[in-house]
Design goal:
The protein has 4 helices and 32 strands. By secondary structure, it is mainly beta.
């Protein structure tokens, strides 16, 4: 009986966590994927320094695994020779930590996590080394359909949609990251409770975008704070593939808020964005979704530092409008759709309304100065993530 009890006890005690180390060299694809498959909850897959030449994407579906490199400039997963069109790395498990490595030149998205709760991206670099091209992967870092996401110290260059994209998710923190030479630097789409702060968005078509789209499984984004970011010189020509929603974003867009609710943009440095430092707009395309709310509501813009903006508006007729207004348009631009009483801008700079009715074509615009003095909604509470996630990002 004693032996049986001891045997049962041994079965009940999980095996000690292991570190599985993978070095660069021959058969790196097979050895690295094998490590991700064989890892047990609690294990660390440690990727050594060097360049890992991969011919296919990698995947992880084991909970509580850390994938750790020697640093984003030391451990490089190169997908330049990728044969398929999928992600560089796909994660579909919970409580995963990704840190200290780079993914380069994937045919599809750089790193995608789907349905992966409590995921941490720390000190990650995703880059398409050939520069901005429509054939680059759509997203650099791409968590979707998840709860509790931490993106910290990430750098993305060259994504043909968004460098950092978070979609259809809850409880999100994006901080201390750099996005450049993407179509959109950072996107928060159809998501609730997000804090985006301490980031640098520069050299993108659009810097930071917060918006809702119709006909998606999760609707009703909002409760977003965008603060203490530097959104500078986002004038990259739009290179998104035709038909993509971000293909409509004009070059020179700093912060764009579209069809979202209770978004607070404050204490940011906004400068050098040729169309506008801040743009507030409705969803202007046709849609077939009775639940979708296309106009922005409770949008609060305050305490931002504005530099030069509006000097080369990237929409039809923009040059003529800027010339008529003395060489530039105001740094805050509203399309005119929805209720002005649902918007509040207190940055001490002029605001221009395009005077567009919901769904009306740009040709019907009636530009005019406007004051947006709607009631100031209380800011959402700060997003607080589990202590274990914060510890993993130290």
């Amino acid at each position: 009986m004693v032996r049986i009890a001891m045997f049962a006890l041994l079965l009940a005690v999980p095996a000690a966590a292991e570190t599985i180390r993978v070095e660069a060299g021959a058969d790196a694809q097979e050895r690295l994927q094998a490590a991700l498959i064989e890892a047990k909850p609690g294990d660390v897959v440690e990727i050594g320094p060097g360049r890992f030449e991969l011919t296919d994407g990698l995947s992880l579906d084991v909970n509580r695994v850390t994938v750790r490199g020697a640093g984003p400039d030391k451990t490089v997963l190169s997908l330049k020779g990728q044969l398929g069109a999928g992600e560089g790395l796909l994660v579909t498990s919970d409580d995963v930590v990704l840190r200290g490595f780079a993914v380069e030149d994937s045919k599809g998205d750089g790193i995608k996590s789907k349905g992966a709760d409590r995921i941490v991206y720390k000190d990650i670099r995703v880059e398409w080394t050939g520069g901005p091209k429509a054939t680059n992967g759509a997203y650099g870092v791409y968590p979707v359909s998840s709860t509790m996401i931490l993106i910290d110290g990430v750098e993305v260059k060259g994504a043909s949609d968004a460098g950092i994209y978070v979609g259809q998710s809850e409880q999100i923190v994006v901080r201390n990251s750099k996005v450049s030479a993407n179509v959109a630097g950072i996107e928060i789409e159809n998501s609730r409770h997000a804090d985006v702060f301490g980031n640098l968005a520069t050299g993108n078509t659009g810097g930071i975008l917060v918006f809702d789209m119709p006909s998606l499984p999760k609707m009703g984004g909002g409760e977003v704070r965008v603060f203490e970011n530097r959104v500078i010189d986002n004038n990259q020509a739009n290179f998104a593939p035709k038909g993509n929603i971000v293909a409509t974003v004009p070059a020179g867009t700093g912060v764009l808020i579209m069809a979202n609710d209770n978004v607070h943009v404050f204490a940011n440095e906004l400068s050098g964005n040729a169309t506008a430092n801040v743009m507030i707009t409705a969803y202007r395309q046709s849609y077939d979704d009775a639940k979708f709310k296309p106009v922005p509501t409770r949008i609060m813009v305050s305490g931002n530092k504005h530099g030069r903006a509006g000097f080369a508006p990237g929409f039809p007729g923009g040059a003529e409008l800027a010339a008529a207004l003395g060489g530039s348009i105001p740094p805050v631009l509203w399309d005119g759709s929805g209720d002005a009483r649902a918007l509040h801008v207190a940055d001490g700079v002029p605001v221009l309304s395009m005077g567009l009715a919901q769904g009306a074509p740009l040709e019907t615009a009636k530009p005019a100065p406007v004051e947006l003095n709607g009631p100031a909604a209380p800011r959402p509470a700060a997003v607080t993530l589990p202590a274990a996630m914060e510890a993993a990002a130290r």
